[in-house]
Specification:
Blueprint (H helix, E strand, L loop, with lengths): L13 E5 L2 H4 L7 H7 L15 H15 L3 E5 L2 H4 L8 H16 L3 E7 L5 H5 L8 H16 L5 E5 L4 H8 L3 H18 L13 H21 L6 E6 L2 E4 L6 H16 L4 E6 L2 E5 L2 E2 L19 H13 L3 E6 L6 H20 L4 E7 L18 E3 L6 E3 L1 H12 L3
Parallel strand pairs: 1-2, 1-11, 2-3, 3-4, 4-5, 5-7, 6-8, 7-10, 10-11
Antiparallel strand pairs: 8-9, 12-13
The structure holds beta-D-fucopyranose (FCB).
């Protein structure tokens, strides 16, 4: 059942699509992911290669998003392009991202910049990544470089994309332990290829070591952003799935605290929380429960659950008292009408939150394009727009027109 939209969002409500540098740009050769995709053994189904060639085609993508009706464009800048070797700054790469920002403004899209959407420079991973105690200062130095060149053009910024993702994946996918073992072999191959005895990546490194350093890096980078040119809200994005308690003695509160606690705490001093929601995790007295046999699944293997967004928005606001921007929400499917009903249901949840007076300031859908979905390669379609894998031709799906119309009408 779809709900007819009836709630008008406030005039400055953000409607947009989200992208990430490594997933769309192509040839991100100095990044940790590029190496991990190309060593043996690797966990990646296929390498990112040309991705969507958006490093070259960004102007077309931005024009398309504007034509569809959006007013916000979320994208990531690639640290490994800006600082390909420690301390070596590429002014050409900074100029590139300046042009991306300018193009957004020219088309009336508020640019929302992610400083690190999981990817880091290969050299940074090969010195231990965020497992190293000096990593926060190194990341903050990058934030300072970025803001000095790009701050004037930013409308919103976030430090990290979903730094808590490993914790969420370990609950969503019960084979995570086997994956971790395979990941160790891949990271060892990356270390060897780098002439190093270590290699740490946000998706596969040691999360208990990484997390506190990333929290500190977030705070230092936020301070660097605040001190630089421009004046724009700064947030942090969190992978937040609905956590539903089932039965007496369920552990939902504990599980939610483990998954989100440090980042919701960090968000208390940010300007907004970026909520990123895809599904639901059900938790009983002994912890997470398997999916019921009759659960409808998306192509990503987890449950089709658009209602999850309402729950995560409410939780994020209750825990932080901060405004929320939905910085990602979407699903992997080849069934585009299912994407439209997912969007409908998710927006109905946003409307209910707003009707209750909750401060939700935007809905940014994942994703503009069918793109490189990390270890799944090109096998999952999260995009509103299809991309031909050899000509890179973009073809908007009906869901793109649908969400664009909602954006234009400003109707939740
Ligand atoms: C999120 C990531 C994004 C994409 C979507 C499907 O967790 O932030 O890059 O992979 O999932």
């Amino acid at each position: 059942m779809t709900t007819p939209p009836s709630t008008r969002a406030p005039p400055n409500f953000l409607w947009g699509t989200a992208t990430a540098g490594h997933q769309i740009e192509g040839s991100n050769v100095n990044s940790d992911f590029w190496l991990a995709e190309n060593v043996k053994p690797t966990l990646f189904r296929e390498p990112s290669g040309d991705a969507c060639d958006s490093y070259n085609r960004f102007a077309d993508d931005i024009a398309l998003a504007a034509r569809l009706g959006f007013n916000c464009h979320r994208f990531g800048i690639e640290w490994s392009r800006i600082e390909p070797e420690p301390g070596m700054i590429s002014h050409a790469a900074l100029d590139h991202y300046k042009r991306v920002l300018e193009e957004c403004h020219r088309h009336g899209l508020a640019p929302m910049v992610t400083l690190s959407h999981w990817s880091v420079p290969r050299w940074f991973a090969a010195r231990g990544g965020f497992e190293q105690s000096d990593s926060p200062e190194i990341f903050a130095r990058f934030a300072e470089t970025a803001v000095n060149h790009l701050g004037d053009g930013m409308a919103y910024a976030t430090t990290f994309n979903e730094a808590n993702i490993q914790r969420v994946l370990s609950l969503l996918f019960p084979n995570h332990v086997a994956v971790r073992r395979a990941a160790s072999a891949m990271l060892a191959a990356c270390a060897q290829a780098s002439g190093s005895d270590t290699f740490s990546n946000v998706l596969f490194g040691e999360i208990d070591k990484i997390e506190p350093n990333m929290v500190k890096a977030h705070h230092l980078a936020s301070a660097a952003l605040k001190a630089g040119p421009g004046s724009f809200p700064i947030g942090v994005t969190i992978s937040m799935q609905e956590i539903e308690g089932v039965g007496p003695g369920h552990q939902a509160a504990q599980v939610a605290a483990d998954l989100y606690g440090p980042w919701l705490e960090a968000a208390k001093s940010a300007d907004f929380v970026g909520v990123q929601t895809y599904t639901r995790i059900r938790v009983g007295a002994d912890g997470p429960l398997p999916l019921p046999a009759d659960a409808v699944k998306t192509d990503a293997g987890y449950e089709f659950r658009p209602e999850a967004l309402e729950a995560t928005i409410r939780y994020a606001i209750a825990m932080t008292g901060k405004p929320v921007i939905v910085t990602e929400n979407g699903l992997a499917t080849t069934d585009d009408p299912a994407r439209i009903s997912f969007i409908d249901e998710a927006l109905a949840g946003v409307a209910r939150c707003r009707a209750d007076g909750l401060d939700v300031r935007g809905y940014v859908h994942w994703s503009l394009l069918d793109n490189f979905e990390w270890t799944s390669g090109y096998s999952q379609q999260f995009g509103l727009v299809a991309v031909d894998r050899t000509t890179f031709k973009r073809t908007a799906k009906p869901s793109a027109a649908y969400l664009g119309q909602r954006a234009r009408a400003n109707l939740l």
